[in-house]
Write a structure and sequence with these properties.
5 strands; alpha/beta; five-stranded mixed beta sheet; single chain
Length: 254
């Protein structure tokens, strides 16, 4: 018989078997003196390892929507355990259309992959239609919502940063939330490095991509502010409506 263990109230990190970097983005103060809602938006690494008990725990705690940001190849290799579920809505929306660390035609990658900061800027400036699609889907979804990629760090990190920025959370706090991944990612590093070997990618080169440098997110937020004016202005510029932004803020902030 499965044992369902409810989430601990106001617990940021949620330990579940088969998932390492599942976190609640509730409880962060906003500039206007409010707080982001607990148990409303979660960020996570891939869910393909989740045990039956872990799946039941998520469902029993009311999870309604999953947004999977991974590449199609990742989804095919490691299918989300909820992809065919009728208990919630599953959306696969690849945030980036080409993996920046995939091998070259000879089967191995010889050049140095772009920095994490460069990848984040690419998401912000180049993949705006994908960002808009993700946030539009979230605004139209039932909550709680769980957003994830492979490690729950880069693609998920940018989307969560935009949501927290829209909610009015200070940049320093957004950077701290991003950097928390380094605390929980350790169990995943070796398995992800092994996966890189299977893909023909130098595992030491790939290991650099598994770091969580606060400066990368700090500089990304500076870029958004300097080029677009603010997170809200950026989201307007890429196509989100006033109503969609209001819906997101209302759900994110209590």
């Amino acid at each position: 018989m499965s044992t369902i263990v409810p989430f601990e109230a106001n617990s940021r990190h949620i330990p579940l078997d088969g998932c390492y970097n599942l976190r609640d983005i509730g409880g962060y103060p906003t500039r206007d003196g409010k707080m982001t809602r607990w148990r409303t938006v979660y960020r996570s690494d891939s869910l393909h390892r989740l045990t039956a008990d872990s799946q039941n725990t998520l469902l029993s705690d009311g999870l309604k929507t999953i947004i999977d940001l991974r590449f199609p190849e990742e989804v095919q290799h490691d299918p989300n355990v909820f992809a065919a579920s009728t208990a919630l809505r599953y959306h696969h929306i690849p945030l980036i259309l080409r993996d920046p660390v995939q091998p070259n035609g000879d089967g191995r990658r010889h050049d140095v992959p772009p920095s994490l900061y460069a990848i984040y800027l690419s998401i912000i400036d180049r993949y705006q239609s994908q960002v808009c699609a993700v946030l539009t889907t979230i605004s139209e979804s039932s909550f709680p919502v769980l957003i994830h990629c492979t490690a729950g760090k880069d693609r998920t990190g940018v989307i969560i940063a935009l949501l927290l920025g829209l909610a009015g959370v200070e940049p320093e706090t957004i950077v701290e939330d991003y950097a928390l991944t380094s605390t929980y990612l350790t169990p995943l590093v070796e398995s992800l490095k092994q996966r890189s070997v299977e893909l023909g990618i130098d595992p030491e080169v790939y290991a650099k991509m598994l770091e969580t440098p606060p400066q990368a997110m700090h500089d990304t937020l500076i870029h958004i502010a300097s080029v677009y004016g603010s997170v809200e202005a950026y989201l307007h510029a890429i196509g989100l409506t006033d109503q969609q932004l209001k819906t997101l803020r209302d759900r994110l902030v209590e």
